[in-house]
Amino acid sequence: MYVIAVYDIGEKRVGKILKLFRRYLNWIQNSVFEGEITEVKLLELKGKARCIMEMETDSIIIFKSRQEKWLEKEIVGIEPNELGNIL
Amino acid sequence: MYVIAVYDIGEKRVGKILKLFRRYLNWIQNSVFEGEITEVKLLELKGKARCIMEMETDSIIIFKSRQEKWLEKEIVGIEPNELGNIL
After folding, report:
1. Do B59 and A79 touch (CB under 8 A)?
2. What 3-state class would DSSP assign to B42?
3. H or E segment at B61?
4. Model pTM?
């Protein structure tokens, strides 16, 4: 399964969430991740995320697609990974 | 065509980009938008975005899917629109 995950997490918790997400998915921009993941691993990720999140203010949106080919990705401007390498 | 668009734009320009994106897509979280859009309207949006963006630092990622049903959306934590209504 191919997913795009975007989080909106309070500043105090964002470092932990970033570290967690990096273990399961590929970072592509700011608070946006993508990658192939199994249902089981995604459940694991969500479970661990819930332990870090403040459920009244934080949110994560996950878009799931059975196949990556159903999604076409286009980038306008700088390729965010390039920026990641510079920083 | 159904798209998810995420931008990473310098602070000085982010207000303009937000306003522009709101005219074409639905805001769902932070710098994340989604919605049905035609190829022509998407071209228009990208053209206008390029006029605002600093191409060496800013970026927009657009995920396109021919059909919305190919994507399943899941939210963990607060529904971002609820938060939007509160703020």
Report:
1. yes
2. helix
3. strand B59-65
4. 0.81
Task: Give A24-42 pLDDT, tens digit per residue.
Answer: 999 998 889 999 999 999 9
pLDDT tens figures, B37-68 = 999 999 999 999 999 999 899 999 999 988 77
Residue of B nearest to A61 (CA): B75
Taking the C-alpha atoms of residue B11 and residue A32, their distance in angstroms, rounded to an integer, is: 18
Q: What number of CA atoms fall less than 13 Å from residue B43's CA on the CB side?
A: 3
Mutate to test the interface with A, among B1, B7, B8 (most CBs of A within 10 A): B8
User: What domains sit in chain B, N to C, each tagged with a CATH number?
Assistant: 2-68 (3.30.70.240)
- Cβ separation A73–B50 shorter than 8 A: no
CA–CA gap between residue B4 and residue B58 (Å, rounded):
17
- Report ipTM (2 d.p.): 0.76
Intra-chain end-to-end CA distance of chain A, in Å: 31
